[in-house]
Amino acid sequence: MKKHQWLLGTAALSLIVGGSFASGAPAYAAGQPPAVYRTDAGIGASSTASAAALSVTDFGAVANDGRDDHSAFAAAAKAAKQQNKTLHVPAGTFHLSKILTIDSIRMEGAGKAATVLVSTDPEKGSIDLKGSGVSLRNLKHVYETTVPRGNGAHEKNSITVRGAGNFMIDNVSVNKSSTAGIMVAYGSNNGIISNNTVANTGADGIHITTESHHITVENNTVTAAGDDGIAVVSYKTSPVPVRAVTIRDNEVGGLSKARGISVVGGENVTIENNSVKNTMMAGIYIATEGSYNTMNVDGVKVVNNTVNHTGIKEPEKHPNVLVYAGQGTIDNVEFSGNTITNGAHRGIGVWGGGVRNVKFERNTLVNTNGAKTTFKNGNIELVDNVGF
């Protein structure tokens, strides 16, 4: 699977290191999708406090002592915002007894194997991101214990983005949460979720919802999610759908309990160059669902992905790829250049009375279990596919 490497000149590097993310000024032109910036030195590199940074240890946090560090972290985050400085978290394990909010600042650890934040309240342990230019990088977040998903409250997520703009979550390890791993909600926009590992969540691994837009989800590994691996979901309770989302170069699977990558209501979503395998339900799922009162789907491109051995769960017996209209409409969906293999029960399915135009072009299907294709509804266009 191809990994993007972005070469940065001095000006571009200052954008992410010393410019817009630190200052809170817009990092992207209004209404435009964000670019993803990556340097080999920045991703996973040890972060050290400097004159432009504060350390949580300056406010009383002590690594590896087993005591609650929340008050120190909260005071440090407040000071970092007031002084327009990065907040540094050194190597070691720190404990948080409450939700930690970081607002319009950069918080960086010494690496996702070095800096560990442990939430001790399974009901209220989220790290919340808000404001403009906020970022969370180079650390691990884990819950000490978890509780059942229940009402799916955001307070039980590992990370929750609450209406933030120009945000970044990069090189973070999420391991265990009572609900979602990374939740993006409340109109969050122009954000990057990159190079993270997400595992053992109580709900979706990465979930984008409630009017959020212009989000890039790239180079993440999501395994053993309690529901979908990566999901875009638009509910009719919102005035507008989730839109302008790019999901690319991710690895999703590891016996996640539902779908691999899903769009359940949304507009202008691109799913590209991902590897999806070993999920309980469909590997790629484009749908509207009456039971969850979701919006229509319009304009989804599914390009150059590999989907292998998904739809394992019985009696559902999902195909590897499923387009399903449970209510409303699904229109302008295109699958091109995908390799779809070894479905546990069948290959590709399209059904539901609201399906309109779906195109399959230059896809390769290798399927030995059940029907290769099940096309029940909609205008299905087939061009130069193999194995259909």
Helix-strand blueprint:
Blueprint: H1 10-17, H2 20-23, E1 53-55, H3 70-83, E2 86-88, E3 92-96, E4 100-103, E5 106-108, E6 115-119, E7 127-130, E8 135-143, E9 159-162, E10 168-177, E11 182-185, E12 189-194, E13 197-201, E14 206-208, E15 213-218, E16 221-223, E17 230-233, E18 243-248, E19 251-253, E20 261-264, E21 266-272, E22 275-277, E23 284-288, E24 297-303, E25 306-308, E26 321-325, E27 330-336, E28 339-341, E29 348-351, E30 357-361, E31 364-366, E32 373-375, E33 379-383
Parallel strand pairs: 1-2, 2-5, 3-6, 4-7, 5-8, 6-8, 7-9, 8-10, 9-11, 10-12, 10-13, 11-14, 12-15, 13-16, 14-17, 15-18, 16-19, 17-20, 18-21, 19-22, 20-23, 21-24, 22-25, 23-26, 24-27, 25-28, 26-29, 27-30, 28-31, 29-32, 30-33
Summarize the structure.
It contains 3 helices and 33 strands. It has helices at 10-17, 20-23, 70-83; strands spanning 53-55, 86-88, 92-96, 100-103, 106-108, 115-119, 127-130, 135-143, 159-162, 168-177, 182-185, 189-194, 197-201, 206-208, 213-218, 221-223, 230-233, 243-248, 251-253, 261-264, 266-272, 275-277, 284-288, 297-303, 306-308, 321-325, 330-336, 339-341, 348-351, 357-361, 364-366, 373-375, 379-383.
